[in-house]
Structures are given as structure tokens and as C-alpha cells.
Design brief:
Shape: rod-shaped
Largest sheet: 4 strands, antiparallel
Mean pLDDT: 83
Bound molecules: zinc ion
Helix content: 40-55%
Number of helices: 5
Order of helices and strands: HHHHEEEHE
Structural class: alpha+beta
Strand order of the largest sheet: 1-2-3-4
Low-confidence stretches: none
Radius of gyration: 37 Å
Number of strands: 4
Distance between the termini: 100 Å
Oligomer: single chain
């Protein structure tokens, strides 16, 4: 074979082979992409609302109704009036009161209870509690904020402590048990009670 013809010929063959290889690679890549790409389709309105409902449920769990937690500021003022005041007991009574008030609601969850304010008047001390909670209503979760008034009334009745069960006068106001009827007493804190619950 003539060398002058041989080199252009091999060059042409090489170009064809390279082109062929590149073509095969490109086709394979396209096939792989097509195979692995998820099919893109527009979700139905129903799916969108379902997802939004699910999202709002999750958001509700993450961001319950905002509360003004002022326990640190209020506690010294409350304890000036009642040194034995127990915030834990206040929260327990608050949750108990909410569960009773909202007993007809489905899936009630009380996220948090805080002391948000305190009003000290000569005859009535009021701790304002706030509670963030949620319950289910017609398939959707509703986030609510409730206000509870926890009051201590200072009146003639409280001058001499008496048993709330049998009415007997108690010589020892710190007694844990009534000496007459043996009913359990909550000394001091027994005077504090949840006086009002409202949404707010
Ligand atoms: Zn008693």
C-alpha cells in the first residue's frame, strides 16, 4: 500500500472509531439518566392539602402558641406575700383544671404552663398563668393559648385555718392531715385555687 494513501486512511478510520465510541458513551449516559431520574408529575390538589395539613401539624408541634414566661420576675413578688408558694403546684393545678375544662376535646396536649403576671391586692393575690396547648378538631390540630387565674383570697375565713373537708379549726396551719377527719391537707397552698380559665 502507498504510504501517502495509508496515513489519511488510518486517520479517517480513527476519527470514525472515536466518533462511534463517543456516541455509544453519550447514548449510555442518556439511558442511565432517564432510568434514574424520578418521573416528574404535578401533585393533585388533594395531595397538596394533605401535605399542608401534615406540615401545619408538625409546625404546631414545633411552635406552640407563644407564652410570656415571667416566672423569674414574678416569683420574688409572690413569695413576699406567701413564702411557701410553689410554682410546681400551681402548674399541676393549672393542668388539672385545663383537663377538666377541655375534657370534651380530642387528643388534648398541654405543651407548657408559665407564670405570666402577678397582681397583689390587699385581699386578693392573683397569679396569672398562661398555657399553650393543642387539641384536635374535625381532623385538624388547633393550637390554643389559655389564661388561668390562680388566686389566694385573704379574708375573715382565712384568718383561722380550717379543714376543707369537715370544717374543723386547725390549730397547726402547717399540718399535713386533719386531726379530726384524717383528710389530707395542703397547708398554705390549699388556699390557692384556680379561679378562672379562659382562652386568650
Ligand atoms: Zn377534717
Amino acid at each position: 500500500m502507498n504510504l501517502e494513501l495509508f496515513f489519511p486512511f488510518t486517520f479517517l478510520i480513527s476519527v470514525i472509531v472515536i466518533c462511534g465510541v463517543v456516541l455509544v458513551i453519550v447514548l449510555n449516559i442518556r439511558k442511565a439518566i432517564k432510568h434514574h431520574m424520578p418521573t416528574i408529575r404535578t401533585p393533585s390538589l388533594h395531595e397538596i392539602t394533605d401535605n399542608l395539613q401534615d406540615l401545619s401539624r408538625k409546625m404546631g408541634d414545633m411552635f406552640p402558641a407563644a407564652l410570656q414566661d415571667r416566672e423569674a420576675a414574678c416569683l420574688p413578688l409572690i413569695r413576699r406575700d406567701d413564702p411557701s408558694f410553689s410554682p410546681t403546684l400551681a402548674y399541676t393545678y393549672a393542668k388539672e383544671g385545663l383537663r377538666m375544662r377541655l375534657s370534651d376535646r380530642n387528643d388534648l396536649r398541654i405543651h407548657r404552663v408559665v407564670i405570666s403576671d402577678y397582681k397583689s391586692e390587699p385581699r386578693e393575690k392573683t397569679v396569672i398563668l398562661q398555657a399553650a396547648l393543642q387539641y384536635e378538631n374535625n381532623g385538624s390540630v388547633e393550637q390554643k393559648r389559655y389564661v388561668l387565674l390562680y388566686t389566694l383570697t385573704i379574708g375573715k375565713d382565712n384568718q383561722s385555718p380550717h379543714c376543707p373537708n369537715c370544717g374543723a379549726p386547725l390549730s397547726d396551719p402547717k399540718a399535713a392531715q386533719c386531726p379530726y377527719c384524717d383528710s389530707r391537707l395542703l397547708p398554705q397552698d390549699a388556699d390557692w385555687r384556680i379561679s378562672e380559665i379562659y382562652e386568650g
